[in-house]
């Protein structure tokens, strides 16, 4: 019988995008909607953005994530993923990770949305 892996769950949101993040301890592939994160968010700028929470907490090789993201466009989804990863890291080890993530503004939801047409 397979053993269930322990993870930290968090939800990140940006505009109309919503990301459900599972943060696992150890080494593994970072997956978004069943695809490697590098393929889902291609480009060096996108890579720099989603790696930011891991680099601030110096945990890039200590944790990996599995993410389901829905709604919005690619940039909104990327913002939701970063918000979800940051919240999951803060829940995993609040004493060490919460302060640098809070100072960088990654734990605050960016609630700006498109203004309706009048």
Task: Give a short summary of the structure.
The protein is an alpha+beta fold and 118 residues long. The chain is built from 4 helices and 5 strands.
Residue stretches low in confidence (pLDDT < 50, at least 5 long) are none
Strand order within the widest beta sheet: 1-2-5-3-4
Radius of gyration: 14 Å
Q: How many individual β-strands? A: 5
Largest sheet: 5 strands, mixed
N-to-C span: 58 Å
Order of helices and strands: EEEEHHEHH
The total count of helices amounts to 4
Percent range of helical residues: 25-40%
Shape: globular
Structural class computed from helices and strand pairing: alpha+beta
Average pLDDT score = 93
Question: What percentage of the residues does DSSP assign to strands (E)?
Answer: 15-25%
Description:
Helix content is 40%, strand content 25%. The protein is of the alpha+beta class and 118 residues long. Helix 2 (44-57) runs parallel beside helix 3 and helix 3 packs antiparallel against helix 4. The longest helix is centred in the last third of the chain and has 19 residues, at 74-92. The radius of gyration is 14 Å and the shape is globular. The model has no long low-confidence stretch (mean pLDDT 93).
Q: How do the strands and helices of this protein lay out in sequence?
A:
Elements: E1 7-14, E2 17-25, E3 31-32, E4 35-36, H1 37-40, H2 44-57, E5 63-70, H3 74-92, H4 94-103
Parallel strand pairs: 3-5
Antiparallel strand pairs: 1-2, 2-5, 3-4
Helix pairs in contact: 2-3, 3-4
């Amino acid at each position: 019988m397979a053993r269930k892996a322990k993870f930290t769950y968090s939800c990140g949101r940006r505009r109309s995008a919503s990301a459900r993040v599972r943060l696992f301890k150890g080494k593994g592939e970072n997956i978004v909607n069943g695809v490697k994160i590098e393929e889902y968010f291609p480009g060096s700028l996108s890579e720099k953005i989603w790696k930011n929470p891991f680099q601030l907490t110096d945990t890039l090789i200590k944790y990996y994530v599995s993410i389901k993201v829905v709604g919005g466009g690619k940039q909104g989804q990327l913002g939701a993923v970063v918000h979800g990863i940051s919240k999951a890291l803060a829940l995993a080890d609040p004493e060490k990770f919460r302060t640098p993530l809070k100072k960088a503004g990654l734990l605050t939801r960016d609630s700006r949305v498109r203004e309706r047409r009048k």
